[in-house]
Amino acid sequence: MNIANRLLLAALCLLPTLVCAAPAGDAEAGRRAFQACASCHAVGPRAHSGFGPQLNGLIGRRAGSLKDYRYSEAMTRSGIVWDERTLAAFIKGPSDVVPGTRMRFWGIGDERRIADLIAYLRGFSLEGGAVERK
């Protein structure tokens, strides 16, 4: 086995640890962190869009797709389908991900807090009911 093959094998063996290196979110900490978002966004069975869109069923939803909120053209044309990666990037820097977004928020630099928020948001179905946590 030559050196290139050995390096490749070593890299493949380390890959699972790199995937697991991203912080796992704490939904309870995310609930507390969401209080800062709640002035514009809502979640849960009674959530409705207001100053910002409601965030029920966000993971897997196409950006700018709720009928009860008037999104920026940039958001509706972004083509984003929210997953944990795109949502984390958006929370970190909204205008970096969707230039022209109307979201008036500078972003969060703390990856742990972002992971916590995503863990919390993942817990709501589109109708606002609880989703079984994985």
From TrEMBL:
- Keyword Glycosyltransferase applies: no
Q: Which UniProt keywords apply?
A: Electron transport, Heme, Iron, Metal-binding, Signal, Transport
Where do the coiled-coil regions begin and end? none
Q: Which GO terms describe its molecular function?
A: electron transfer activity; heme binding; metal ion binding
* Signal peptide boundaries: 1-21
* Database matches in InterPro entries: Cyt_c-like_dom (IPR009056), Cyt_c-like_dom_sf (IPR036909), Cyt_c_1A/1B (IPR002327)
Cytochrome c domain location, by residue? 25-125
The UniProt entry, under PANTHER family, shows: CYTOCHROME C
> Per its record, how is this protein called by name?
Cytochrome c family protein
Q: Which organism is it from?
A: Noviherbaspirillum pedocola
